[in-house]
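Researcher: Here's my situation. A collaborator sent me these components and asked whether they could plausibly form a single complex. I don't have experimental data yet, so a predicted model of the whole assembly would be a useful starting point for our discussion.
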Amino acid sequence: DAGITQSPRYKITETGRQVTLMCHQTWSHSYMFWYRQDLGHGLRLIYYSAAADITDKGEVPDGYVVSRSKTENFPLTLESATRSQTSVYFCASRPVGTERYEQYFGPGTRLTVT
Amino acid sequence: QKEVEQNSGPLSVPEGAIASLNCTYSDRGSQSFFWYRQYSGKSPELIMFIYSNGDKEDGRFTAQLNKASQYVSLLIRDSQPSDSATYLCAVRGKSGNTPLVFGKGTRLSVIA
């Protein structure tokens, strides 16, 4: 049972380059989320998706693009990376249903933009 | 802007003591409350969930919720060095399908 995986786990890229972070879950959860975690800011929501082809902005969406053509995948693209996007990125998922359901997190991707 | 506030710490307690972590939230309509534990370099993992006013116990952990005062707390009894981590409070709004809003976390250090 793989659960939720993220790739790559570590990435170094240069300012201005496009980079895509992958998230894959095997539970068929309806909801998927992207957060970034920075010192002093905690976990901040970038984008989330309620189902395939349905996405919505979170707290800090600028500079990011998401898509969700399949339920199990939710890639996050930085179209033109900036140093301020250096962060740890966590993908999460949860099933649709009652508010009692927790969000399950992937292992994270540590991204450095030079 | 829905906010979740936590004392960033670090909170230091001796081994065997009770650690008390607190969290306040701004959205009075919030319905579900979660405590996640995050070890350094790892992803958050759920340790407690609470939905109703009062206390909920699970082993050494007790979550307390007071909706009127808009706070939720986590007590860790018989603290162990392995409990040293950052504890994140998360809140879900009135609609069951809204994303969790996280506090910035409280760093707990249990001293042997």
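Model: Some features of this prediction you could bring to your collaborator: The mean pLDDT of chain A is 93. The radius of gyration of chain A is 13 Å.
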